[in-house]
């Protein structure tokens, strides 16, 4: 018969079998056991973290300050990179326009704006030393910007088309209806002196007519967004959204005659 | 020597107005820091005619140089306003900030109304809504900025009583 106590081989086999069974049972119980233990584990971990937080308060505070500084630095770098990318895109468009333009143009940067609320003007970083003269036309790759009204050696002042003091002879691209576009000090322009039966409607593109020698023909001014009748009832007007965002303009091209 | 600092401050404010103040636009309007400079000239140099004229002419000239309108108009208006403020400050007490802000608002109304009358006389057409916006809201916005600039001027050591 088998003697468990005396036969070491049998004893070893029984022990191994028991061990394998135990491992199998424990393995099956692992998931439920972890589920049960997860709550006290979580509590203990929280307590440990809070205790560590209290004990290492000063170290954490210093670390936080350092990381905060790093974050600010990285945010600034990211902001600089974004700004550079936007500027790069804008300058690429200007360069492309400059290469394809029929005019001889000079790129310049806006360095200042009119300080009062009654006029709309910008100051650019190019002046008579770069060949700019009083009366030169300022454009962007999107359309007409304004006219140079004052020139010094290194700077020039441009009266924007949104200024009420600047009138531009213009036509509707579709119907060839003529009118005079002037600024209103707001974000929109007004096209006036249109006949009562003028063929002009919303979404019409307005361009310079070339009737006056100052402005070359065909420069885009903007798009009609609304029309109406003058108070006198004798003529019509059209509200125009400028093609160029004049309030945020940063670079302009000056047409050199 | 100290009085020269205020002129340097006016130049700094003019540069600020022509550059980064664009970010403070509200309904397309910006506070007129150079106009505040003219009012301050009238307030702090109320018994010193020479410096009152220098201060107001400087602020008016700076505005005329940077703006795109008729050169000299701001110089004349700023000097007149500074003289009126100085005269008024001799008659009544203008020490409290709300009174100074109210004075800036009233002077702003006067300045803007005169400006628009001259502009219209010279051929500019501006809609009535826009005129109202610039005259009223522009004056209020400028008046709201008055204490900030006055604090800066006071920081330079200029007090009405010292003059």
The Cα radius of gyration of chain A reads 38 Å
CATH architecture of the largest domain in chain A: Beta Barrel
Low-confidence stretches of chain A: none
Cα distance, first to last residue of chain A?
A: 121 Å
Number of strands of chain B: 0
The interface involving the most residues is between: A-B, 26 and 33 residues
What is the strand arrangement across the widest sheet of chain A?
Answer: 1-2-5-4-3-12
The CATH homologous superfamily of the largest domain in chain A is termed: Rod shape-determining protein MreC, domain 2
Roughly how much helix do the residues of chain B carry, as a percent range? Answer: over 70%
Terminal residue distance of chain B? 14 Å
> For the residues shown, what is the average pLDDT of chain A?
83
Give the oligomeric state: heterodimer
Strand proportion of chain B: under 5%
- How many strands, which pairing sense, and closed or not: the largest β-sheet of chain B? none
> Which stretches of chain B of 5+ consecutive residues score pLDDT under 50?
none
Mean pLDDT of chain B: 84
> What is the count of helical runs of chain A?
2
Keywords summarizing the entry:
heterodimer, A: alpha+beta, 3 domains, six-stranded antiparallel barrel, B: 163 residues, mainly alpha, 6 helices
